[in-house]
């Protein structure tokens, strides 16, 4: 064992929502590791369990949610942390940025005050020290005239500016891990690129481990080192981003790649994956993708395929270009 | 709002030592002309109530059957006299005292208790919410007047008991508003973001829930002041609140109702006072809501 242990280590994670009468298995046996300074993209469509997996790292689920499996983050067993230790982990060691910055910042407080509050929650510093720190963070995330921007209310800022503020807030207490839940989805295309570049730069400079949830394979290619493709609460393919993009082995990954908008030129129609994702409260017995898969075989419908490792790991009985 | 923006853009350097939230509210409020007029009216009414002994030209309880129901502009009785020949102007001035007390006192008390109940229910959710809110609903199911009468009837007549029963009537109404805004706010992303940054339940309630929830509850509560005055008048009429010969606008309105065919202008005067007072409180609360809202 010469390699240092991974900073995020998830083993056999399963998350079940028990709201109402039906049990919904949102995550169904996920294994993941992320090393220090590494960016992992969790890729999948809505309801694939990517955001739920992300929130499990901070145990941010509604009351009554059943979380099973092992989650180790920065050497701590998240499943066994007490209330106090969990609060220290949240925002201290691991912090998170959200999809819609306009909703993720409290509208009735100045942005600067919200950052100061976060800093003082985790660090024993005075108000003025926290303010100075907030100012440096605003400079780090390249907000123009940072001093006056700290005094803005969220509605006085643009979406891109708000997401920068959100990133500043997330980095306020020097976390080792940044969780990003579709942070660029709500932004327009030009701002999106700027935010991605900023995230990549801050990540390299600070040596952050990042888990980046997205449904956009292009965004994943921009930021990630590794990618894990999720479908119906399971990882169907994972590996180095370049390998997965250039040499997809799971039919679902292939489908995602084919469905990119960039590929549809002129009058040619967008290629889509036929069918709809399965109902998570009644998963099929075999591979969850089997009903939509073009390469489906008899075993696919009865047995859940394991994740087999190769150059990329794939959970499929009939992988492409084996 | 446009005004605020230009002001803040004009002097960006002040931000780190920016004026506090309430200073901003006051600044915005002072620019709202209607709210300022309403505030002046409210202030004058309060002043009138405090200075009643000095302002009233006559004893509000001394009547004379010889000068009953004199019209407006009678020499010595500018606003005429009531059905027992008492000077209307003096009675209206004195009446401000009890009317304001009965209109204003129950609301802040109910505001504090109702908000607490509603916020706890909204934040806790689930079973706790159901137990609290269904209990509140039992009270809410009764019409306000009926509930107030039933409570005062049980407690016995008198000013204090009337105030207690009015407070109890308003608590469920405020609690329901508080519960619904809290439930909305507490599902929003910034509450989850706060939790993700390590905030405990207490900090979330204190900072994010209260900060977003108090303004709408506050505005709703100020609108109850006029309702409270009307209800108080009803209680007095039934002999459950203020009793004659004390002057109170609601009570006056009710006793003068017999005179409505003889001298309608006199009979309407207490109503005019109630109208002015409730409009002033409502307009002021509207202005306050706009001034307190930093979101738009």
From TrEMBL, chain A:
InterPro entries: AAA+_ATPase, ABC_Ni/Peptide_Import, ABC_transporter-like_ATP-bd, Oligopep_ABC_C, P-loop_NTPase. Its main location: membrane. It comes from the Bacteria. Coiled coil: none annotated. It is found in: Cell inner membrane. Residues 10-257 form the ABC transporter domain. Keywords: ATP-binding, Cell membrane, Membrane, Nucleotide-binding, Transport. Pfam families: ABC_tran (PF00005), oligo_HPY (PF08352). GO terms for cellular component: plasma membrane. It is a peripheral membrane protein. One of its GO terms (molecular function) is ATP hydrolysis activity. The keyword ATP-binding applies. GO terms for biological process: peptide transport; transmembrane transport. Belongs to the ABC transporter superfamily. PANTHER family: DIPEPTIDE TRANSPORT ATP-BINDING PROTEIN DPPD, OLIGOPEPTIDE TRANSPORT ATP-BINDING PROTEIN APPD. This is Peptide/nickel transport system ATP-binding protein.
From TrEMBL, chain B:
The chain crosses the membrane at residues 34-56, 98-125, 145-171, 213-240, 260-284. GO terms for biological process: transmembrane transport. The keyword Transcription does not apply. Pfam families: BPD_transp_1 (PF00528), OppC_N (PF12911). Residues 96-285 form the ABC transmembrane type-1 domain. This is Peptide/nickel transport system permease protein. PROSITE patterns: ABC_TM1 (PS50928). It is a multi-pass membrane protein. GO terms for cellular component: plasma membrane. The keyword Membrane applies. It is found in: Cell membrane. Belongs to the binding-protein-dependent transport system permease family. Keywords: Cell membrane, Membrane, Transmembrane, Transmembrane helix, Transport. Gene3D superfamilies: MetI-like. It comes from the Bacteria. It comes from Arboricoccus pini.
């Amino acid at each position: 064992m010469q390699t240092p242990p991974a900073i995020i280590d998830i083993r056999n994670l399963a998350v079940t929502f028990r709201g109402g009468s039906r049990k919904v298995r949102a995550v169904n046996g996920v294994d993941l590791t992320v090393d220090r300074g590494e960016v992992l993209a969790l890729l999948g469509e809505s309801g694939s369990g990517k955001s739920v997996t992300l929130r499990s790292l901070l145990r941010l689920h509604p009351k009554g949610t059943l979380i099973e499996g092992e989650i180790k983050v920065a050497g701590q067993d998240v499943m066994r942390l007490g209330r106090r230790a969990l609060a220290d982990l949240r925002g201290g060691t691991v912090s998170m940025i959200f999809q819609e910055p306009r909703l993720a910042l409290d509208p009735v407080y100045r942005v600067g005050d919200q950052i100061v509050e976060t800093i003082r929650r985790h660090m024993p510093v005075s108000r003025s020290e926290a303010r100075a720190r907030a100012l440096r963070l605003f400079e780090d995330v390249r907000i123009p005239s940072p001093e006056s921007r700290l005094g803005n209310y969220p509605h006085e800022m643009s979406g891109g500016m708000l997401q920068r503020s959100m990133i500043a807030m997330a980095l306020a207490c020097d976390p080792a891990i940044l969780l990003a839940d579709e942070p660029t989805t709500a932004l327009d295309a030009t701002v999106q690129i700027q935010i991605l570049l900023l995230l990549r730069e801050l990540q390299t400079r600070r040596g952050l481990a990042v888990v980046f949830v997205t449904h956009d394979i292009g965004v994943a290619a921009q930021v990630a080192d590794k990618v894990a493709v999720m479908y119906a609460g399971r990882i169907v393919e994972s590996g180095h981003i370049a390998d997965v993009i250039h040499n997809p082995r799971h039919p679902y990954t292939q489908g995602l790649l084919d469905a990119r908008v960039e590929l549809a030129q002129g009058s040619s129609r967008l290629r889509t994956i036929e069918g709809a994702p399965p109902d998570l409260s009644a998963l099929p017995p075999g591979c969850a993708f089997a009903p939509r898969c073009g390469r489906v075989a008899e075993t696919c419908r009865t047995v859940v395929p394991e994740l087999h490792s190769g150059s990329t790991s794939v959970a499929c009985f009939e992988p492409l270009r084996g | 709002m446009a005004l605020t923006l230009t002001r803040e853009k004009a002097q960006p350097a002040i931000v780190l030592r920016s004026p506090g939230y309430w200073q901003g509210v006051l600044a915005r409020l002072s620019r709202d002309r209607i709210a300022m007029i309403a505030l002046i009216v409210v202030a004058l009414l309060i002043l009138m109530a405090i200075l009643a002994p000095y302002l009233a030209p006559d004893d509000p309880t001394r009547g004379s059957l010889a000068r009953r129901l004199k019209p407006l502009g009678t020499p010595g009785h500018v606003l005429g006299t009531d059905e027992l020949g008492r000077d209307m102007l003096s009675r209206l001035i004195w009446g401000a005292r009890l009317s304001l007390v009965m209109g204003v006192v129950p609301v802040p008390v109910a505001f504090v208790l109702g908000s607490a109940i509603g916020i706890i229910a909204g934040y806790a959710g689930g079973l706790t919410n159901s137990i609290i809110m269904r209990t509140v609903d039992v009270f809410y199911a009764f019409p306000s007047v009926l509930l107030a009468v039933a409570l005062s009837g049980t407690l016995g007549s008198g000013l204090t008991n009337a105030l207690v029963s009015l407070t109890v009537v308003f608590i469920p109404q405020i609690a329901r508003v508080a519960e619904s805004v809290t439930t909305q706010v507490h599902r929003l992303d910034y509450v989850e973001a706060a939790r993700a940054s390590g905030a405990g339940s207490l900090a979330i309630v204190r900072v994010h829930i209260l900060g977003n929830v108090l303004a709408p509850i506050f505005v709703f509560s100020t609108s109850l002041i006029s309702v409270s005055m009307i209800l108080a008048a009803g209680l007095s009429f039934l002999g459950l609140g203020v009793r004659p010969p004390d002057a109170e606008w609601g009570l006056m309105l009710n006793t003068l109702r017999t005179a409505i065919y003889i001298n309608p202008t006199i009979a309407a005067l207490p109503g005019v006072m109630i109208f002015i007072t409730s409009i002033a409180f409502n307009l002021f609360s509207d202005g306050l809501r706009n001034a307190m809202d930093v979101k738009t």
